[in-house]
User: What shape does this take?
Amino acid sequence: MKVVAIAGGIGAGKFLRGLVRVVEPANLCVVVNTGDDIEMHGLRISPDLDSVTYWLADEMDRARGWGRREETFRATEELARFDADAAWFGLGDLDLATHLFRTSQLAAGMTLSDVTAQIARRFGVPARVLPMTDERVTTRIVVDEAGGERDLHFQEYWVGRGARDRILRIVFEGVGEAGPAPGVLEAIDAADAVVLCPSNPVVSIGPVLAVPGMRDAVASKRPAVVGVSPIVGGAPLGGMADKVMPAAGLEVSALGAAEAHRTVLGGWVIDEADRDLASKIEEALDIPVAVTDSVMRDDDTAEALARATLALIG
Assistant: This one.
């Protein structure tokens, strides 16, 4: 069975740990959000690509949810002694090696897709990991500031300012000029299933589907497209979906998350806590809904969730 997973961040990483127990890793292609990418201290940082890679490689810090296991932050701590304002984005010492390698290879003329493949091989990841695009697409958050507007990079909004600002609008800068990374459309076309991981529907899955040609490609596989709600009991298990979903006109619920993917979904998986929403989602979107335990406490529960997800579309 060939599967394409569309992913971003921690929830996706946890889910993928279970998915590779169900699907032969060599038959899995993970298409990852790069709207969160940022340049810091001259380095190209790709948070979601790295998070997915570290989770698949079993190198992640489970307690923190992001970054490398047994990570230290001595470089960031030392930077803060020079300039506290320059150290707002915590870069781990092990993680720095990944960013240094990526930056040097991009400067040498390699594409982001090629560098990502090299990094995945370094970590022994047998699944194919692809960025959504090789072009620069940046998620910008325009917020209210004293009655005016302030344009922030997504990382500034989320990490630097703790998602405290009221969002006026969300912009995927550069997406109109971007195209899917090499191999992405071919992988979707050949897939037996396309899975929307339990990631933020607006700023994790949203940028991927916004790349020209991507939404149409996924929609063409609609009977085989299944998603997992990142919202449980009316709240995200992590992240800031509750901040950005209202700004996109979406209710913070399993129903609202499904509505974000209305044009592509063939099935939707929700948690037991949201069982009463199942019939509402089925009626509103005309798709089957599966109800199961979607809180991924460990790899075993992630595997059970992955099995239930694929079972929904046969």
